[in-house]
Amino acid sequence: CPWVSIKGTKYKPKLVLTLDIHENDLPIFGIIEDIVLFNDTLVIFKCKRTNTVAFDDHVFSYE
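The chain above was modelled as a monomer; its predicted structure follows.
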């Protein structure tokens, strides 16, 4: 499936999702690699998990 829309949000490969919050309060991000749709009701995102090192106050983003 090249993309899917859920409640007005369009999800497609290479989009970054927040998967969880690590015990050190840093987010765990995942990059969508593939989207699987079952019976037009169940959506599964295959994600590549990334490593969050720290929050950079200068650019106000995670690295």
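DSSP finds no helices and seven strands in the chain.
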